[in-house]
Amino acid sequence: MADTLFAPDESAMHAIGAALAARIRPGDVIGLSGGLGAGKTTLTRGLLSALGLAGEAPSPSFAIVQPYDPPLVRMPVAHVDLYRIDEPEDVEELGLDEYLEDGALVIEWPGRMGNRIWPDALLLDIAVEPDGARRLTATVPFAWRDRWPPL
């Protein structure tokens, strides 16, 4: 199932992330695709803020994996940025499956994983419209059907 959401501005992207936080469960994976500056990190910041993170979450561009654990957030979440990953095989070294035991993953640039993305991942492709708004096209797996759309 595919669906589309629109975010006219940065605060709307933040709100979509917050809405996803109300629906995310341990074992979930959210994959965020889109060009540089599309709003992947903004959406993730909205999610983390709604999970209780005080302050602004840094982009994990250089760390690659930025974990957040209680008491900073109500459930463990790892924010992953695969932009600097060259080969899908390199993702295995990150140990991402371990985060799914009791938490969730938000992965920017999931296409860098090749075919290694989890089949139940919610995939959001973010495109910038000519007016600056964002169009989010969701690929909604069965595991998310009762939780979509988030707004």
Automatic annotation (TrEMBL):
GO biological process, one term: tRNA threonylcarbamoyladenosine modification
Pfam families per record: TsaE
Primary localisation category: cytoplasm
GO function term, MF aspect, one: ATP binding
InterPro entries, sorted: P-loop_NTPase, T6A_TsaE
Localization in the cell: Cytoplasm
Coiled-coil blocks: none
Keyword match Repressor: no
UniProt keyword ATP-binding, yes or no: yes
Annotated GO CC locations: cytoplasm
UniProt keyword annotations, A-Z: ATP-binding, Cytoplasm, Magnesium, Metal-binding, Nucleotide-binding, tRNA processing
Family named by the database record: Belongs to the TsaE family.
Protein name: tRNA threonylcarbamoyladenosine biosynthesis protein TsaE
Source species: Sphingobium phenoxybenzoativorans
Gene: tsaE
